[in-house]
Amino acid sequence: MTNPAALPADWRDILALTKPRVMYLVVFTAIAGMLAAPQFPPLALGFTAILCIALAAGACGALNQWHEVELDAKMRRTANRPLPAGRMDRQSALHFGVGLSFFSVILMGVAANWLAAVLLAASILFYVIIYTVWLKPRTPQNIVIGGAAGAFPPLIGWVAAAGQISTLPVLLFAIIFLWTPPHFWALSLFVRSDYAAAGIPMLPVVAGPQPTRGQIFLYSLPMAAAAIAPWPLGLAGPVYGVSAIILNLVFLVLAARVLANRATEPAQMEPEKHLFGFSVFYLFALFTVLVIDRFLPW
To answer: Can you tell me the mean pLDDT for 63-70?
Structure first.
């Protein structure tokens, strides 16, 4: 049955269902992966491939909110989403998410290549089934394993352009995979009461702030190594290499400040908030410099 309270939904609610803030980063990293590839697809095909990745990200957001409507209703930062607020019914969200998923994968296969389409389908299934349904409600390692879902876009962008997988896109995948735990654990430290209220076993809820801070710093180390690696491996030039070193030094300093913090109240977690804010800038800056470096003479 359709919930009568869902009738006021409008285009803003449909857009919110796709988690546009998450989509921006997904689209950006996918474009960076495509531009870093050794050859570029025709403009129309490149645009279509990026559109497919954006639609797939939107589908993941819709299916995530469809599955987690009861959890979202328990958290202050998600309670006003279309489903828990009653502006849209769950069945509509499910149909929207499944329809976008199939459309994006089929269009990617037709417009770009079927390897990119298979990777796109794998990213959707991983995010919805492995992360959202299985890992998130069961283990504090949900972000660690689930980070693979968000790491797919630059790999898919590269494959859409080049038609094959090579070392650099795998490193781009690894960077985002290793960046995800410090990024989300920094956030979860100062909103852990929300996760606790919803019964989600995020690491700060299960293990406490100090073990989480230790894990943030530990994951930052291999992330920095993966981010710098393209330069010594000859996959990127010195502009990228020097920029990557600077960005990762700043990231490690901020992660060390988080490690040194002993606060338990959100109001005292400025180091965590600084790291979370910088982590978003870090990823945008790193991938931007990679693309700029790609077009320089060397």
So the answer is: 93
- pLDDT tens digits, one per residue of 173-218: 999 999 999 999 999 998 888 888 778 888 999 999 999 999 999 9
CA atoms of 110 and 192, how far apart (whole Å): 43
**pLDDT (average), residues 98-110:** 97
What architecture (CATH level 2) is domain 1-165? Orthogonal Bundle (1.10)
CA 69 from centroid of its chain's CA atoms: 20
User: What is the rounded distance in angstroms from the CA atom of residue 16 to the CA atom of residue 187?
Assistant: 20
Nearest by Cα to 266 from 194, 199, 211: 194
Distance from the first to the final alpha carbon of the chain: 62
The percent of residues in the chain predicted with pLDDT above 70, rounded, is 97
Amino acid at 198: A
CA–CA gap between residue 297 and residue 140 (Å, rounded):
46
Helix (H) or strand (E) holding 237: none
Q: Is the pLDDT of residue 119 over 70?
A: yes
pLDDT, position 10? 76
Burial class (CB in 10 A: 0-12, 13-18, 19+), 250: middle
Q: pTM of the prediction? A: 0.91
The Cα 49–Cα 53 span in angstroms is: 6
How far apart (Å, rounded) are the C-alpha atoms in residues 188 and 144?
13
Q: How far apart are CA 16 and CA 9, in angstroms?
A: 11
CA–centroid distance for 217 within its chain? 19
Angstrom distance (rounded) from CA 149 to CA 155: 11
Please answer whether residues 224 and 252 qualify as being in contact, where contact means their C-beta atoms are separated by less than 8 angstroms: yes
